[in-house]
Amino acid sequence: MQFSYFLCLTLLIPQAATLSRYHSHESRKKAKELPVAATEAIRSKDFAFNLYRVLASADPGQNIFFSPVSISMSLAMLCLGARSHTKTQILEGLGFRLQETQEEELHKDFQKLLQELSRPGDGLQLSLGNALFMDPKQAIQEVFLSTMKTLYLADTFPTNFGDPAGAKKQINDYVAKQTNGKILDLVKDLNRDSIMVMVNYIFFKAKWETSFNHKNTQEKSFYVSAETVVEVPMMNREDLYYFLQDHNLSCRVVGIPYQGNATALFILPNVGSMEQVENGLNEKTLQKWFKMFRKRQLQLYLPRFSITGSYQLEKALPKLGIQEVFTTQADLRGITNHSNIHVSEMVHKAVVEVDESGTKATAATGTVIMFRSAQRSTLRMVFNRPFLVLIMELDSKNILFLGKVTHP
Predict the structure, then answer these.
(1) For 394, left (φ over 0), alpha (ψ -120 to 50), or beta?
(2) Are 131 and 155 spatial neighbours (Cβ–Cβ below 8 Å)?
(3) Which of 173, 327, 368, 385 is 20 to 30 A from 164 (CA-CA)?
(4) 235: number of Cβ within 10 Å
(5) What pLDDT shows up at residue 279?
(6) What CA–CA distance (Å, rounded) separates 179 from 391?
């Protein structure tokens, strides 16, 4: 079984304060069709790939795993309270221009996604949600609160930030519960000057349409680099898979459907071509791949792995042009009448586990605000060197998770 968790946390504090900090079984007779294109997504997928490149460049050679949909939803919620240039930077970073109709579309599409994911599904557990932890002594704009509840279905909780330890426990307990105990201690430190913590979480649990047989899993070599080789539990199964070879990007891609309406893409760059593939990832590439996919008989070898990602987004997002909201120049008057608040910290944590039965993944983002054609022959595909993984929800065409497995 596979699970994924993501969490995003945003802290708002006074500007004068210091920064704390994817049911039918795919058989040889019939298979679920992958989407031809992905044009109706909430926003440009280039945000996901641009952020991936920023995170990968900050930690070269390391595992990367995060939830683009969690982070972009957190930024969209901030947009509700942002004004002037602060709003412009957030929208442009997400791939939008500062037009009222586009921003309205952004919020309504997120509302639709939240409503769709709240319905029970067959063989797939996928939940996405938001919460606001607020200082009851602070005057939060009623329009902001009502919009957060209406569009983003946000839960709201009064929180005593004068008791930082108690506030931290309240928030971390909520996050742990929503992610089935996979995300612990999201909040490390809180400042007494904090006035609000915004939390977004995503929980994903799905089984492969056809699971791997545990008896076939064997210890095999994984080549982390030319100098480093480690032994990993390598799953393997021969079956029909979605497959393509992208000669322009020097990589091969295997698509494995989950029960329900999600799929995982595993991307294996040719030897020495990881950077070429990373630089070539964008929305057009993804659309091209979905048109190129053909069912092919594969002998697939895929490592069982579990990786975690933890990121301080206030350090990464400025490289995408989203900078002002983290400074004393932030304009968040849509959240409170106080002119001296800014985002002090935006934390994102993600966990993924891939095994013979499926995938478990979860993530969360927290923001703290303070004052201021297939051949019949069998092809052998062995993921025994660093590769990329992308998990998509097929109805919304959204990228739920994106990452790189360097050390399984």
Answers:
(1) alpha
(2) yes
(3) 327
(4) 23
(5) 95
(6) 18
- DSSP H stretches of helix in 161-224: 164-178
Query: What's the average model confidence in pLDDT over 177-181?
Result: 84
Token pair listed for 55: 């995170």
* Average pLDDT of the residues in 293-301: 94
Quote the CA–CA distance of 375 and 394 in Å, as a whole number: 26
132-163: b (≥16 Cβ within 10 Å) or e: bbbbeebebbeebbebbeebbbbeebebebee
Q: Which residue has the tokens 């221009």?
A: 97
Distances (CA, A) of 145 to 28, 170, 258, 295, 351: 51, 20, 37, 48, 30
- The first and second tokens of residue 290, run together, are 């979905």
Instruction: State residue 374's pLDDT score.
Output: 40
User: How many Å apart are CA 132 and CA 399, to the nearest integer?
Assistant: 24
- Please name each of the domains of the chain with its CATH number: 2-372+377-405 (3.30.497.10)
- Report the SS3 class of residue 185: coil
- Residue 379: strand pairing partners: 298
SS3 state at 35: coil
Residue in this structure with the two tokens 């504090």, named with its chain if needed: 13
Whether this model's pTM surpasses 0.70? yes
**Is the torsion defined by CA of 276, 308, 383, 70 positive or negative?**
negative
DSSP-assigned letter for residue 320:
G
Mean pLDDT of 243-258: 94
Reduced to 3 states (helix: H, G, I; strand: E, B; else coil), residue 266 is strand
Q: What would you report as the CA-atom Rg of the chain, rounded to the nearest whole angstrom?
A: 21
The torsion defined by the Cα of 106, 111, 113 and 114, in degrees rounded to 10, comes to 140
